[in-house]
Amino acid sequence: MITEDDKIADVLNQYPILKEHLLQRSPKFANLNNPIIFNTVGKFARIKDVAKNTGEDLTEFLDFLNQHKD
Question: Is residue 26 domain-resident?
Fold first, then answer.
């Protein structure tokens, strides 16, 4: 189960399908395609940070990630 304290890079490395789902969800996730940003910020940014920075409701965002990870 993905939690608010998981790092986005770890989540996307474990569940690569989520990247496509996030890109389809909102253009706010376009930075996932930028390797420089992803490789630096992704290692530190937690799911709750990503939700806050993209304006996502944390609970809804976690539900989305957990529903689409497989």
Answer: yes
